[in-house]
Sequence to fold (332 residues):
Amino acid sequence: MALLRQEHRDGSSSDIPVVVCASENRMGAAMATINSIRSNTDAGLIFYIVTLEGAVALTRQYIERSSLKGIKYKILEFNPVVLRGKVKPDSSRPDLLHPLNFVRFYLPLLDINYNRLIYLDDDVIVQGDIQDLFSIRLQPGHAAAFASDCDLPSTHEMVRSVGMQTTYMGFLDYRKQEIRDLGINPRDCTFNPGVFVWQTCRSGGNRRLPNSWRGGWRRNFQNLYSSAIAGGVATPPMLIVFHGKFTTIDPSWNVRHLGWSPDARYPDSVLDEANLLHWNGRYKPWKYPGVHLDAWERWFIPDPHREILPAAAPERQLKVGFWGVFLEDFND
Fold:
């Protein structure tokens, strides 16, 4: 992992550092996330945009030739070689095996010289002031803040209706002795690792992964995680590392499951009061058939060449036709 390019707009010590991953085929999503953040705060920001080598030029062009020009940012290149031997190849959702999906686990190695940062998935839209999330008071002994999967009562009915898991039983394979030896109650509530605040506690330029993080990856390699519907790939190691060691963020800062079913819709009141909307799941707001597209598309910024368009854009429909859009998204 290396700092590929340090852009000329460096941040200051008072800026809020936000980490967002930007893959080539989801670049428009990352830019919509960034646009929503900077449009809803007066705070100083610096964006750490993590991507792969082949998408560095596109990332820079997207920013410099759009209305995002002027933001403070650094582009970081993630080297997929660090994942060799650590990721199971038999995921039921191949999209979860994209190298950038594991960046959150390597945050200690990124060249980010701040004591605290915010990490966001690229399928989120921020409607509140990011300062409020960044300023959360962590409980003593905690290094991060996440949204608990048991803190969204307005969505519990929907969660049950689509069979989603909200406890460790859905992520860890309790048939394995090493999992049982962890002493984690299978009924404990899990948390969502797509939105979190992390206290880096960095000193002396240390770039090593903490022992607890390395242990999480070792267990991943040993195939100790559940194959249940909630299984995931990068989530279980985070659940192990931060079990009982995280502060809970306000539920409005991760109103999620918007991407779990094209038939499940939130009331407008829930969407309006949310500080952050999260389309975790298969159905993204830039694909057909997503839900609550208008809440995402208002922040979308077309790329300079207008090759990246949301699913509902007339230009995209004319360019490839309805079935072209469907097949294009199906093959992503």
About this structure: The radius of gyration is 19 Å. Strands lie at 2-5, 16-21, 45-51, 73-77, 116-120, 124-126, 144-148, 191-199, 246-248, 276-278. The chain has ten helices and ten strands. Residues 314-330 form the longest helix (17 residues).
